[in-house]
Sequence to fold (303 residues):
Amino acid sequence: MVSSTTPESAASKLRSQLANKNDIIVCPGVYDGFTARLALNAGFKTLYMTGAGTTMSRLGIADLGVATMNDMRDNAAMIASIDPVIPLIADADTGYGGPLMVGRTTAAYITAGIAALHLEDQVVNKRCGHLKNKELVDESTFISRITAAANMRAQLGRDVVIIARTDALASLGYDTALTRLKAAVGAGADVAFLEGVASVEEAKKFCGDMGEVPCLYNCVPGGVSPVLSVMEAKGAGYRVMITPTLALEAVYEAVEDACRRLKDEGDASGNGVGVRKLFESCGLEEAVEFDVKAGGMGYEKGI
Fold:
């Protein structure tokens, strides 16, 4: 008999994690099924789908706002489906248009099983938050994006955690950025994301000024913010920490080295991991077991 108990949604699980004020949610940045599997295998209980990584891996282009809602939603849906009980936080950029489009984006992310999304106040033709000369929309446009997401969440009667991100710090200053985020929370956002904090002191001030609202830290080595350890971010008052370039940096270094050795030295030996271990990291044994239990004949003699 199939149980009629409804499993806890990923969004609900993320809210439970956020409710623990004594802990910090650490989310490794992943951008495809393979990097998501590796993060899950390492034991992480929450993942972050990086927009930069999605753009670079799916389109082969730097993070300059070229990825569409469908590009982002499809990638996030695939990652979320690998283990639906693990909350996935996903980049939703600007929402990809006006309030109607932001509502459509929110609905698409909810339907895809994504636990949380973040929406920002850059213009639609945006760029990575750690690049220069970002252009912003006015506060009312930003708040309309958050309101559209919150209204769609209510209309569907299905949960998603809304993270409000502002890039206003670099050009408009701290006070304006704080005002924008507090207004976003008033419009329905659950988490505050101040992009580009310049120091630990500023990070602590921000978390303190937001009071009981959970704050998110974006750790981007080589970017404009200090690289904080998990404990340092927690000590500053953050409740969520994302690392968007974690997998990108590791892959960049490893693949560049492997390609160089193949081209310059003719060395095709790899790193000794072996193809079977690669497949096992992506659920080989579990997939075979599922097939056999269901009466499949293709793997009954092993694989």
